[in-house]
Amino acid sequence: MDSYDAPELTPRQDASSRLKDFFIGATPLQKRLESVRKQTSFIPTPPRRKIPQGSQLQNVPHFVLEWVARPSARGSSQSRDGTQVSRIEDVDPQKFAVLLHKQWTLYSLTPLYKFSYTDFKEYSKLLTAFIAAEKKKGLAVEVGDDFNIKVVFSTLMGVKGTERDPEAFLVQILSKSQLPSEHKEGKVLWTGWFCCVFGDSLLETVSEDFTCLPLFLANGAETNTAIIGTWFQKTFDCYFRPLAISSFNLSWMAAMWTACKMDHYMATTEFLWSVPCSPHSLDISYAIHPEDAKALWDNVHKTPGEVTQEEVDLFMDCLYSHFHRHFKIHLSATRLVRVSTSVASAHTDGKIKILCPKYLIGVLAYLTELAVFQIE
Amino acid sequence: MRTCAVMSSQKKVNSWARKRTSQDSSSYQTRLSAWRVKEDLNDSKSISKCGQNNTVEDCEGADGQTENALQIALRYFEKGPIKTSQNKEKHLKTVENVAWKNGLAPEGIDILLSVALSGKFGSAVNTRIFKCMIPATLISEDSVVKAVSWLCAGKCSGSTKVLFYRWLVAMFDFIDHKEQINLLYGFFFASLQDDALCPYVCHLLYLLTKKENVKPFRVRKLLDLQAKMGMQPHLQALLSLYKFFVPTLISVSLPMKKKIYFKNSENLWQTALLALRSRNQGFPSEPLKLMLANVYPIKRKWNSHSIIPVLNSCNYSKESRKKRMNLSDYFSSNGSFPLEQLKSFPQLLQNIHCLELPSQMGAVLNSSLLLHYINCVRDESVLLRLYHWLSQTLQEECIWYKVNNYDHGKEFANFLDTILRAECFLQEGFYSCEAFLYKSLPLWDGLCCRSQFLQLVSWIPFSSFSEVKPLLFDHLSRLFFTSSIFFKCSVLQCLKELLQNWLLWLSMDVHVKSVRNSPLETTLGGSMNSVSELIHYVGWLSTTAVRLESNRTFLLHFILDFYEKVCDIYINYNLPLVVLFPPGVFYPVLLSLDSSILNQLCYIMDRYHKNLTAAKKNEFIHKTKSEFSFSSKTYQEFNQYLTAMVGCLWTSKPFQKGLYIDPEVLGNASVAEYKKSLNLVHHPAFLSYTVSFLLQKQPSSSHPAPSCRLILRPAGIRRRHRSTLESGSWRALKPGSPLLESNTPFLLFSLAFPGFRPCAPAWCLC
After folding, report:
1. Which of A260-274, B78-92, B396-410 has the lowest mean pLDDT?
2. Range with the poorest average pLDDT among B202-211, B334-343, B551-560
3. Nearest CA in chain A to B360
4. Which one of A32, B712, B730, B743 is CB 3.0 to 4.6 Å from A205, fit for a cystine?
């Protein structure tokens, strides 16, 4: 605090309690706090939580419905309230390919202030110069000058849950080749993308100056992520936080991803538990044939269209008891650190790899939910 | 007479000049005109630009002789070198003496400047001339322009040029106008080519640059220079200034450490100028600061930087939008006031409508001026930005979220301190902090940053207690019961502050309540419920804590401190609420062996009495039973406490009402004469007073203790006390005042209950 001293503790004047007046009203801030209260009070053991898609079954595109395995709801891309929702067909498959089979580091991101989709050119110019300046520490660089890197902003059409979700966008750092004759497009040095899939709870609490893209995924050198993140934080007054996935959420992912109906399985279902012991922690890997896992899930699963906490617990308990029968080890006493299935694989450090394009939106929806929870 | 005020806020050098402009312009007027008159009288060459102002004043020139000698010397230099070097030396001495003593007038400087740059004398003389060119008041802009034209004539050596630029930079604040000089910007800029001049020209440009001077071709030129000469502090300074004005044109990343771009020590004239300033203006001379104030080079490590962002106005978004701006936008943005220039409260008031907000809202925590702004702003997005930033930062930095991250403990504690200062300044709690508490309290060990964390609790904005209890207070009580007595005391302290904050807010709010529609607490009754629930909660904590800690005096103090707030709610805060302490607190306190505790209890009982009486009176006046009339249960409870207290301390009938103990039990305990042993005279808590009284009365006595019972009775004490009462001074007394401590316990009780009559139940409230 600078020159002004804090006032004495005296009853306030009318004017100075205005902030509170303002807060007390039904402002988005108030709503936000209410939701934090609710969430916090439910946090320790949500007795029964719908999977993110379950609650919006009526207005999600059919590929999402497929993901929650409810064939009866297939075939309608028109939501109940009549709004058109995006379909997988609208999505540029090339763009999609960029998102798959890569390991992404997850971050949660608070709403971007005064972000505009029409200013991508300007942003890419500024960000290019910013990166160049950061790299040549101490040297000034001209904006718009020619550097050996290039930053490209582009939208990712269709990566969203509902019409209300803002458009996702992609940022890439490309290296420019020194020889002018070679490919125009250089090598991709770093990729990051911002998205929001079924982020309704967050969208409700912010005003129109903000763009809510709570989930940020980055692939590439950490230093680049840091520079770009810093630029976004400075420019749009937002805040990046690494998004770790707790064991609890990993088991949810395991259950939900096992539940996905696949035409053919690309990978085995694998779990990794970590036993904390010195000097090196002991990892226990547990691989199951995906069809066996699916069969187990189908036995556990009772409520159509949604997954409950009981089902998740039961599913994991079955795995535990099976393991215990063979190895006499109580896995429940250890920590689940990684889950990989044919749909996607996730690590507790906040790393994810999405394998199946069909369930991309579904995976993102759950991650968005986690990110929104973290920023609330 | 105005000096340049349109400079960047970064140039601290100019702030002095600006202040001067506003405060002392009139005195300058007279001084200058006085000088001109003198000049005319002396028939020297006068630049009569506006010399018709002929008020004669002799504020300068102590004796005419020196003045004459100076004129002769100046004329000598103007004419050019004459071979007799003895004269030259003499004249030079004269000029130097006057200059160092009083400074030179604008015209004198004008002449000397031309002389030095025209190359009439050798460079040794030129150097000496430059060194003594110290202005008495101001330097005329024309002289500088003329000097620049001399530079073009190419008659002076390189070293003289360097000296000229250094002089110009040093004297920049004393030049009366800068418009003409600014027109020469291109000329100065071209001089950057000269390697020897470059640092000084950079500095000059740094002082001179306005936004319109920043052009792409200049940026390019500077970058070329940078490429040629490498990373030079002076170039960096200029570039970052350019970036400050036009951020879209240039990107520069500055090194971590705060950097001084221009060396102060190179200023040859510094001491003379400081002396001059203090002499002329009576201004407290402050050392010149030639540093970039807020383009501070903070490169943060990703998410673990200095926690609170630096104050920067939004450059990027504004600039990028410029292209699409319509006329009104243009006007509004043109009039916007950059934060970097915001230095005082009046400035804030004048520019509050057009303030450029910081690019990262978190920066307001470090600026009390902006906190004022935050306090009255209605803009939802401002508060949301702060909310998001603060809640994320708190969680990110919170040390007990991470394992083995206790190195950052100090940093986190400092951060919390900053937040608390801001909350205290605003007298408001932040919602983000409340949300943070919900999430982090269950994980807290009760040790990390204890004082800060508990203070955060005390700033929780007023809300429904029953709603907050499961999220917050249930976790807190778990910690409370399992921690040391010191932790218990600090929790009680923080709850006292919380109660006080809530009460203050409600007492302010109670008057506007009727007009407002709030979803939280629609009625005053609801609010009162919430407060009384808080008090009951603390009562419950205290009751249990008293048992756990077996009546420790230290703990009782903190409990009673809390009730000192509680007992006065009706009168002090004008809120319809009286909540008594639970029996689990009252009786242990009544039977406490510490006199100060008993004293505090008497005070609190007295205040309860006053509050209840006031409430009763109000009810009586208004006749109508209001919504908030207290139930008779409260009165009965109070009466019961009072009866027990009187029975114990005064009428020697303890353990009969309220505090009932079966006589058989007492008999079994083989306490003889238990009835009297707790009255004022025999109460063990007051033994120390008795002893000290005895020591005072009989200093020579070797063994005072056995007779202490008798000593308490002398009439002298009563008389003394009665006179205190009659003089009316008892009202001013509070527990802890010297009178109470040095006198007898009898006084103590009577002070708390003036007009107290044993046996007469008149003071009981019904």
Report:
1. B396-410
2. B334-343
3. A237
4. A32
| β-bridge mates for residue A108, sequence order | A215, A241
What are residue A170's DSSP bridge partners?
Answer: A154, A193
The answer for residues whose C-beta is within 8 angstroms of residue B498's C-beta and 6 or more apart is: B457, B458, B459, B460, B534
Query: Could you give phi then psi for residue A352, rounded to 5 degrees?
Result: -140, 145
pLDDT along chain A (376 residues), means of 10: 35 34 48 65 42 35 34 32 40 75 93 92 90 79 76 89 90 77 72 92 82 94 90 91 91 90 84 80 89 91 83 92 91 91 92 90 92 88
Question: Over the stretch B691-725, which tens digit does the pLDDT of each residue have?
Answer: 888 888 876 655 544 443 433 333 333 333 333 33
B660 inside 8 A of chain A by CB: no
- Contact predicate B204/B169, CB 8 Å: yes
Residue whose C-alpha is closest to residue A271's, from A339, A327, A335: A339
Measured CA to CA in angstroms, residue B116 lies from B83, B90, B143 at distances of 17, 17, 12
Whether A169 contacts A153, CB under 8 Å: yes
Alpha-carbon gap: A245 to the closest alpha carbon of chain B (Å)? 14
CB–CB of B321/B348 below 8 Å? no
Which residue type occupies B152? C
Chain A CB contacts of B509 below 8 Å:
17, 20
- Count the neighbouring beta carbons within 10 Å of the beta carbon of residue B569: 24
Alpha-carbon radius of gyration of chain A: 23
Is B68 part of the contact surface with chain A (CB cutoff 8 Å)?
no
Q: How many CB atoms lie within 10 A of CB A121?
A: 10
**What digits encode the pLDDT tens for the residues B537-547?**
999 999 999 99
Task: Tell me: cis bond preceding A279? Omega within 30 of 0 counts.
Answer: yes
B299, B302, B312: residue with CB nearest A229? B302
**DSSP string over B564-601:** HHHTTHHHHS--S---PPPHHHHHHHHT-S-HHHHHHH
Q: Is the ipTM of this complex over 0.90?
A: no
- B16-29 core/surface letters (b: 16 or more CB in 10 A; e: else): bbbebbeebeeebe
